[in-house]
Structure formats: C-alpha cells, structure tokens
Design a protein that fits this description.
With 502 residues, the protein is of the alpha/beta class. It folds into 4 domains: 8-177, GAF domain (Beta-Lactamase); 200-364, P-loop containing nucleotide triphosphate hydrolases (Rossmann fold, 3-Layer(aba) Sandwich); 366-442, Orthogonal Bundle (Helicase, Ruva Protein, domain 3), CATH 1.10.8; 452-502, Arc Repressor Mutant, subunit A, CATH 1.10.10.60. It is built from 21 helices and 15 strands. The strands form 4 sheets. The protein has a 6-stranded antiparallel sheet, sandwiched between helices. Strands 8-9-12-7-13 form a 5-stranded parallel sheet. It is elongated, with a radius of gyration of 30 Å.
C-alpha cells in the first residue's frame, strides 16, 4: 500500500487507536478527537477538521475542528458539493489542493469570517460500506510543504478508523435508544410516566414522597399548572403498599357536574334517564388502590359533602341507591388554584380541606429548579427524535441558555411542547434558539437571577457546563476530565457536590 517503509510511530499510533475503538465504542466523540489529533500530528497539518454528513438535509457539519480557529469554525456548515470538503463528500474521493486560490472549488467565506489563511488542503472521505459519511481535512502542512500521496494514504487509514468508530457508536446508540424506548414503553404500558428530575429541590420532595407513601393518609399536592403533580401522585402510589393495585385518575374539571357524581360513585339502573344499567364508579374501581383527584377545587359543594363522608367513613352510596358500599382507597388530591382562598370564599368546604390536607406536598415551579431543565430537555429530545425519526442530536449552547433563562409559565408541560416543536421545525443537527420559538423578555432575565446569590448562579452554570461536557462524552468521566483540563477525582467531587446524575 505504502511506497516507502512504514513509519513505526504512525503504525504504533494506528494500533493504539484501533484498540481504543474496539474497547470503548460508546465514547465516539473522544475517539474521533484522538484520531483527528493523531492524524494532524502525523501528517504535520497546521489545522484540521472532521465533518459529518447529515443524511436528512445532506449538509456537512463540523463535528471536530482543531487549530487556533477551531471553536469558530464549528459554527459553520457546508452544503453537499460546497467547498473542498463538500466536493470530497459528493464525489467520495480524496483530494489534494496545493494552492487553494487557484482552485474554483475552494470556499473562502469561512476562512474570511474566522480570520484564517488557508493555502493548501488535503481532504479524504470517511466511508461506511463504501458510502461517504464524513470528511477529514488537513489544512496547511507545516514549513509550507505540500501534502503528498504518502500523507493522503495515511489520512485515508485514519479516516477508515474514524468511520469504524462512528459505525460502532451508531450501533451502540441504536441499541441504547431501543432499550430506553422499551423501558419507556414498559412504564407507559403500566400507565405511568418516566420521572425526570435530580435537582436538590426535587430530591427533597422525593424524600418526602417516600415517607408519605408508607402511610394511608390523604395527600394534597399543590403547584402551578404543568409542574407534574400527577407524576408525584404516581410516585406516592408506586412506593406504597398499594403499588400492585390500581391507580385511578379523575380530572374533576374535565367532567360536567351532571355526570361527576355518577363518574365518581357509580349509579344503579334507572337512577336517571340514560341509566340503562348499573355502573361502578371510580371509587369502587379503585378499591384496594389509590384514587388521584386532580383539580379537586372544581368539585361542586354537594359532591364535596359526599367526598367528605368517603374520607371519614370509607362508605358511599351509588346514585339512585340507598345501599352503602365500603371501600379501602387512598386519596391523593391536587390543585393549581389557591385552595385556602377558595375555603375563605366558601366555594370549598373547610372540613374537606383539612381532611385532604393531612400531608401537603408543594411541587416547585420549573423556574425554581432550573438545574433540571437540561436533563428534561434531553429526555424530551430523545423521545421526539424517535417519534419523528429526525437526526437531531442536541441543543446549541445558545439554545440551552435560552431555555435556562426563560420563565416557563407553563412549566414542564410547556418545556415538553417547546422541545417537540423545535424537533419538528429544526433543519440542522442542533436545535437553535429560533427553533424553540420562545419570547425572551426583560421579565425573564430578572426572574432568572431572582433570589439567587452569586454562588448559586455560579453553581448553576457549573452544573450545566459539566453536565453538557459529560453528555458529549457519553458520561465517560476520564475523557470529560481531560477535555475540561481537571483531575478525574476533582470532576467526581464536583459531580457529587452539584448533584449531577445521568
């Protein structure tokens, strides 16, 4: 293959990288960086880039860029056929350009915008089953020497290794996505949601949930619309002795008053015009398990009286019947309204409120636990990426900052909708602020720093920064510590102190 004797240093580097590919195919980004660093060093390039082809929009994105202008270069993308790298991707052929100024294929805009002078380029395709999936390019050989065929042959070998790393990583990612999908399906098949949240505010509430779950006392969950009150009700049920029994959900605001009593307590045949047969109510169906009453404040006063009796005596009568029915049901209620104000105004019974409020649980708003936003956003991204089958792999730093600084009046539900919308309209591999369609206002900026000390703000930034770095390296702490320029032991301590979980 090579015209001259094999360089021992290059050969040793190839063996080392090949061993890494076969032993750790989950951390593709670190492997690709190592491959590009080695290729740049051994071919004496002044700068280098590794671009990947997005099959959906046929664009090339700078996955890794080394050199003095590397971070700036990564902000750009190329169309198929555009520039030297675009030509190599489109034609699936290697190319050496000794004088780019004399080659019409050279794309000058990126160099001009980042302030980098390109004189010569060596670019080779990365192939998987003879299909070009990316391009590695070397820019400006040191000492103003031209790139030659030996450089090209070695770079093609490195490109083959990079392609192998990508193939392994994609296979690993597909398997991991399938496992995650199966786990989500198992959870949803049981009727429950996946619980996401590891901030200190949520950890504190989950500790309370675990203690509350061991009792049969009524629980009142309070919080704004969209914070996930139903998910907390699920956690209480799942950690209780009733977990193998049903969790019955009732949205009190969604049912007409005329049907609500029958829905909750059932009816007998002939109780009203359309009652053509006997019917079990939600309380009877929930016998032995838990009933979750969402928007409890919307209950009409007559039904509140019947509800109070169920809590006190565990008995009720079906609509149209005088025969008492006894049930063993744990009651969890929730509301996003000011229930104490409703009591003062007389629209909610005082005695029922005290019966429900035995164990109150306040769910914090999303703006009060911003540390959870990156984890939630990536969870929703994975879900909608699977559903839409789009190759969207993450968020730009600017998009993440937009989400961190937004007030989220609709809380987690609004975040979920924003990510779904962004995945649908995104035309690139990374979601940008414009894809989220969130209006950033001065009020949002003020709220972002509301009641936060300097230390809290710094810790929030550190948590987001480290979590993104870990995610970029598939949670490999050794590789992440190396990129961040810190000791692995120090990174482990930061992960623990900042309560960062995978």
């Amino acid at each position: 293959m090579f015209k001259n004797a094999v360089d021992p240093q290059k050969f040793e580097t190839l063996i080392e990288i090949n061993g890494l590919i076969n032993s750790d195919y989950s951390d593709a980004r670190t492997l690709l960086t190592r491959i590009l660093e080695s290729a740049t060093r051994l071919t004496h390039g002044e700068a280098s880039s590794l671009l990947l082809v997005n099959e959906e929009n046929q664009k090339l994105y700078f996955e890794i860029a080394l050199g003095s202008k590397g971070p700036d270069v990564k902000k750009f993308s190329l169309n198929m056929g555009e520039g030297i790298a675009g030509w190599v991707a489109q034609n699936n052929r290697s190319l050496i350009v000794e004088d780019v100024d004399q080659d019409p294929r050279f794309y000058q805009d990126i160099g001009k915008k980042v302030g980098f002078r390109t004189e010569s380029i060596l670019a080779v395709p990365m192939r998987i089953r003879d299909k070009c999936v990316g391009v590695i390019e070397m820019i400006n050989k040191t000492n103003s020497q031209p790139f030659d065929d030996i450089d090209r042959q070695w770079l093609e070998v490195f490109a083959n290794q990079a392609a192998l790393a990508i193939q392994n990583a994609r296979s690993f990612q597909r398997a991991r996505d399938e496992i995650t999908n199966l786990q989500d399906q198992l959870t949803s098949d049981r009727g429950y949601h996946t619980f996401i949240g590891s901030s200190s505010a949520i950890a504190e509430k989950l500790q309370l949930v675990h203690r509350v779950a061991q009792t049969d006392s009524s629980v009142l969950i309070l919080g704004e619309s969209g914070v996930g009150k139903e998910l907390f009700a699920e956690q209480i049920h799942l950690h209780s002795r009733r977990s193998d029994q049903p969790l019955i959900r009732v949205n009190c605001a969604a049912l007409p008053e005329a049907l609500l009593e029958s829905e909750l307590f059932g009816h007998v045949k002939g109780a009203f015009t359309d009652a053509t047969s006997n019917r079990r109510g939600r309380f009877e169906i929930a016998d032995g398990g838990t009933i979750f009453l969402d928007e409890i404040v919307e209950l009409p006063l007559p039904i509140q009286a019947k509800m109070l009796r169920v809590i006190q005596q565990r008995t009720f009568e079906k609509l149209g019947s005088s025969e008492p029915i006894t049930v063993d049901v744990r009651i969890i209620a929730a509301t996003n309204r000011d229930i104490e104000k409703a009591v003062e105004e007389g629209t909610f019974r005082n005695d029922l409120y005290y019966r429900l409020n035995v164990l109150p649980l306040h769910v914090p708003a999303l703006r009060q636990r911003r540390e959870d936003i990156p984890e939630l956003a990536h969870f929703f991204l994975q879900r909608f990426r699977r559903e839409t089958k789009k190759q969207v792999r993450g968020f730009t730093d600017e998009a993440m900052e937009t989400m961190l600084s937004y007030t989220w009046p609709g809380n987690v539900r609004e975040l979920e909708n924003a990510v779904e919308r962004a995945v649908v309209i995104c035309q690139e591999e990374l979601i940008r602020p414009s894809d989220l369609l969130l209006q950033k206002t001065d009020q949002n900026a003020e709220d972002h720093y509301e009641a936060k000390t300097l230390k809290q703000s710094i810790n929030l930034f550190k948590r987001h920064f480290i979590e993104n770095a870990l995610r970029s390296h598939n949670w490999n702490q050794t590789a992440t510590a190396k990129v961040l320029g810190i000791q692995r032991t120090y990174l482990s301590r930061l992960i623990k102190e900042l309560n960062i979980t995978r």
